[in-house]
Amino acid sequence: MLQIGDEAVYFSAVFLLVMLATRSAIWATVLTAFLYTFMVMFRFPPVPADRAARVLRPRAPSPGSVPVVAHRGGSHDAPENTLAAIREASRNGATGVELDLSFTADGVPVLMHDDTVDRSTNGSGPISKLQFVQLRRLNAAAHHRMKDRFSGEKVPTLQEAVEECIRHQLIIFFDVKGQPDMAVSVLHGMFKKFPVLYNSSIVSSFEPKVIYKMRQTDPYVVTALTHRPWRLSRFGDGTPRSLSTWSQLWTSVLDVLLDWAHHHVLWKLCGISAILVQKDFISWDYVQYWAERGVEVVGWTVNTAVEKEYYQNLLKISYMTDSLLEDCDPHY
């Protein structure tokens, strides 16, 4: 939770900014009081720390090590977001898997990272335009480096993936990209159908509205916000998203505001238990900042032995990786 000192600083800053903008102590007081009341009335308390720890700090692969999560099931070791990836992750010693939730045209919840099926299958087009029966015909290993070994692997349904993870006793990081209403409804159904998920899974998203709605629908679910600074203005490799100077400047301003909101408002409003942050922005001080607020930091995507040693021995926090076996290309 926010420390009392934090709240005093934040709301004092709001008061001063409004005061400077309106030159009215009355308006500054009214707006500050409104924001404070809103936060108190509509924020969700995080799930109990001991239960969150079962998800975020479960058994590690070996004594003294940190939990390791196979990103998209471990997309370097097996075709991403498939049952084969889940099985390989378990075999290779992962503590959990991160899986991406998507929906077909007929509303079937499946695993898929991109908006289209082009990159990861032998099909083409938006997944939202494909019926499940059409998606099921595609080869999810078509473009993987070990496509011969995993030939014929199918895109699984969400339930198939959940059952496979439960079978292998893996922690699940459900990553929600969009369609918050549908995603929350489906995930809530999964938690009710498989109650073990309350102690073995976490729902995460870049979109705060997804997490807020998940907590609103089921306050017992462990949740996390996913964050990468400068996400609106720059791609993962640092290149600008726009060639327009004004557009780039505007999105940079939005990035600063979004970053501030994540660290000072949204985490408390949603009552998160963890924050998933792109690896290049994590330091010991950053981990401590969140630890003081009862929030775990999980890094993504950590793909080299040097980086893994840094997370294992110095930061001592969980991380996501595309491979549990060897170094692989960086992921943004």
From TrEMBL:
Spans traversing the lipid bilayer: 12-36
CDD domains for this protein: GDPD_GDE1
Residue stretches making up the GP-PDE domain: 66-332
InterPro entries per record: GP_PDE_dom (IPR030395), PLC-like_Pdiesterase_TIM-brl (IPR017946)
Pfam families: GDPD
GO BP, sorted A to Z: ethanolamine metabolic process; N-acylethanolamine metabolic process; phospholipid metabolic process
UniProt KW keywords: Membrane, Transmembrane, Transmembrane helix
GO CC terms in record: plasma membrane
Domain of life: Eukaryota
GO molecular function: glycerophosphodiester phosphodiesterase activity
Family named by the database record: Belongs to the glycerophosphoryl diester phosphodiesterase family.
Protein name as annotated: Glycerophosphodiester phosphodiesterase 1
Organism of origin: Amphilophus citrinellus
